[in-house]
């Protein structure tokens, strides 16, 4: 089986985790895919639920039947004719694609566990975001844990291939965890969100707040406990978990603590990527159709549409057979985000400030996806 | 202030909760809105963060400054110029709309607490879903907790105004809760998902599973613990939490237990609605533009598009000034979902099975929204 792999890591608080992940994550992905390689090849048959077992008709045992006497059918309510009483239990059919997603998810978890195990011996510092693309059997699997971003540009149109994981986008997950496991807050933080810091003199007054299960805001009477620092604080690029970190998924960070305290951040960080699938064979791709991966340094200053426009204008001016046309397009994007040094700092188009963050960009042509799939047919 | 209110409750395991909620939920909503009525009227000024306090510039205290020394700027990484070091803390600006959303969310919580408090005295049985629409200051707030559904039909096009909360759509929330608080499973259930029941003879074999943080599937070695009944089991309309309930948000159900056990279901159920906002003043509405609320009995057998087509065909044939035209359209929808009794049961269009569930439908004209807002301007 053909397999292609691209990956992008953005480190923080040290380069260790990013370097280790850039060298080892692909091995974890390969290891996870190893178990399912024969199943993937056999695309005509759905993946077996249980390995090393002949498919058979299962009859439910009596315990199962009792449990199946569910609420709606059990209390005399008229059952919908589309849901006859369940006698024999059916099996959920899992498509092949879901096994690749599961393999990538497991690989991220294993990578994070390896960093945890070996961080002291090998002095693996810091943490990193991870954005990974796996090409397998005509499909792209884009896995993202962090605040990097992937988009596809097809015919000049943007197809988003990832979402970002930040204190703002993951607020409810983080607040819910803190609500259920308050000891993780070390008596220093509150899981409630307030529009600003609460002052002691405001105790007894009514202030806007937001709990884990709210998307709106309501007033509550301020108590002593609300004076603690909020778990989630700040807006946009300044939003932080426990006043420390601005990205909520990734690898590493096992030793990261709140400044001047003994409170670990890691329980709030997830190593699980979101995996989106793009079926290359569903579309015909031209030489200017590309997948773009970039760190937040690019997306902080350029909109998806600006990136699409830049690439769509740049590529047709390159030699169509030039070996470096996509590399040149990536360099062009980096320079558009960095800008040029003027009197008042680095400036990009429309006199906006350029990015001072590090900027990494991949521009990956999709046209080879066509050819590869054609070769196989 | 003008306020309009519609509500739809679908009971299960007894009618008590549905009846009580249909009589009292609006009072909780009014009570919550009471506190913010003056703020809502004053639409020119953003809602105050703290009530009874003059706005002032806050200077951060030293503790705050320490905490603000966040990871990215704290470890020598180049800070982006768009995020200068924070010296003075800004205040999050909360728009008026968010206060109405918060008020409705709080009202649902209070309603559920009242049912919990009074269920024994007043013998309030069962639980119910709740779909509520509040009209306030030119906007519709559609709040949904359960598996009813609201759609707007505008110019024959469907605008979804709610999503459903079921064991399948809320799988990850439920598994996460069970993972973090395993005692809620009463040693009878496992938070892991399997494509079918695991049999004892399969211990030691590799079977597909899905954990709370996975969207894909992977193989794991079956252990004794995996023989427990899965927290989430079944597909589509047959999906159940703890083999008992097929809807995961709503009111009531405080006494609901797993059949033949002492395990309560309520900790897994949420009373929080999802609130979507529709700005009536953003569009001009004709006499055939409507908001439709209906219980799952309708949506189980008819697609959004079929409902839109039916209404779009029905309304123009009614007297435009007839006082019952929207009621007639609602009745038409109910009959389309119930079908007619034939040799082989109740049948709807294309010889599909009709709904055997109860079916409640509201068809609410949006054209009065125009007029009302115009009157006010």
From TrEMBL, chains A, B:
<feature type="domain" description="PPM-type phosphatase">
    <location>
        <begin position="1"/>
        <end position="366"/>
    </location>
</feature>
<dbReference type="InterPro" id="IPR001932">
    <property type="entry name" value="PPM-type_phosphatase-like_dom"/>
</dbReference>
<dbReference type="InterPro" id="IPR036457">
    <property type="entry name" value="PPM-type-like_dom_sf"/>
</dbReference>
<dbReference type="GO" id="GO:0005739">
    <property type="term" value="C:mitochondrion"/>
</dbReference>
<dbReference type="GO" id="GO:0004741">
    <property type="term" value="F:[pyruvate dehydrogenase (acetyl-transferring)]-phosphatase activity"/>
</dbReference>
<protein>
    <submittedName>
        <fullName>Protein phosphatase 1H</fullName>
    </submittedName>
</protein>
<dbReference type="Pfam" id="PF00481">
    <property type="entry name" value="PP2C"/>
</dbReference>
<dbReference type="InterPro" id="IPR015655">
    <property type="entry name" value="PP2C"/>
</dbReference>
């Amino acid at each position: 089986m053909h397999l292609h792999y691209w990956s992008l890591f953005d480190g923080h608080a040290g380069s260790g985790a990013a370097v280790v992940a850039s060298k080892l994550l692909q091995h974890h992905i390969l290891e996870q895919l190893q178990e399912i390689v024969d199943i993937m090849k056999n695309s005509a048959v759905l993946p077996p639920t249980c390995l090393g077992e002949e498919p058979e008709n299962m009859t439910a045992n009596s315990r199962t039947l009792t449990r199946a006497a569910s609420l709606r059918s059990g209390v005399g309510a008229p059952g919908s004719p589309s849901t006859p009483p369940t006698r024999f239990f059916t099996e959920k059919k899992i498509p092949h694609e879901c096994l690749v997603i599961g393999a990538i998810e497991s690989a991220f978890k294993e990578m994070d566990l390896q960093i945890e195990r070996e961080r002291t011996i090998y002095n693996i510092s810091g943490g990193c975001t991870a954005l990974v693309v796996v090409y397998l059997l005509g499909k792209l699997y884009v896995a993202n844990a962090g605040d990097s971003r992937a988009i596809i540009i097809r015919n000049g149109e943007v197809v988003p291939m990832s979402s970002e994981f930040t204190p703002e986008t993951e607020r409810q997950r983080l607040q819910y965890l803190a609500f259920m496991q308050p000891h993780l807050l070390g008596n220093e933080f509150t899981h409630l969100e307030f529009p600003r810091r609460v002052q002691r003199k405001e105790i007894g007054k009514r202030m806007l707040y937001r709990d884990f299960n709210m998307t709106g805001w309501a007033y509550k009477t301020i108590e002593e406990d609300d004076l603690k620092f909020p778990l989630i604080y700040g807006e946009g690029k300044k939003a932080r978990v426990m006043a420390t970190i601005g990205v909520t998924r990734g690898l590493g960070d096992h030793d990261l603590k709140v400044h001047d305290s003994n409170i670990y951040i890691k329980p709030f960080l997830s190593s699980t990527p979101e995996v989106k699938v793009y079926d290359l064979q569903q579309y015909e791709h031209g030489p200017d159709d590309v997948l773009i991966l970039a760190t937040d340094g690019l997306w902080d200053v350029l909109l998806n549409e600006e990136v699409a426009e830049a690439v769509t204008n740049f590529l047709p001016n390159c030699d169509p057979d030039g070996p470096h046309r996509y590399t040149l397009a990536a360099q062009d994007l980096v320079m558009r985000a960095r800008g040029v040094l003027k009197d008042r700092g680095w400036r990009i188009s429309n006199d906006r400030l350029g990015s001072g963050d590090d900027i990494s960009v991949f521009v990956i042509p999709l046209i080879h996806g066509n050819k590869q799939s054609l070769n196989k047919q």
